[in-house]
Amino acid sequence: PWHMLFFIVIIFLGSFYLVNLILAIVAMSYDELQKKAEEEEAAEEEALREAEEAAQAKENKRAAHAATHAAAANAAAAAAAAAAEADGASVAKSPSD
Fold it and tell me: What is the torsional sign of CA 21, 26, 30, 36?
């Protein structure tokens, strides 16, 4: 009868150990999956932020390019107006004007 008690205790302790081992493995797997999901989310957010920065830089470059062209056009128009005014000043006017 005492032998049976020994084996019952061993079976209960072994079952407790195996259940704890399985739960530990499940918990570790869950933690790994959670970390991997967080890393993927962080990488996705980083890629999105970089894409937004690239789009903003492209827009700024396009705006600067347009401003440069507008300034060049204004300078050309001013130069043409100055040249026209200079040409008009060298023309001799009649006294009747």
Answer: positive
**Which amino acid, residue 70?**
A
- Rounded Cα distance between 53 and 46, Å, is 10
The string of pLDDT tens digits covering residues 47-82 is: 999 999 999 999 999 998 888 888 888 888 888 777
CA 1 to chain CA centroid, Å, is 72
DSSP string covering 34-50: HHHHHHHHHHHHHHHHH
CA dist list (Å): 11 to 1, 6, 22, 23: 16, 9, 16, 18
pLDDT > 90: what percent of the chain? 61
Q: Which of 80, 84, 60 is nearest to 72 (CA)?
A: 80
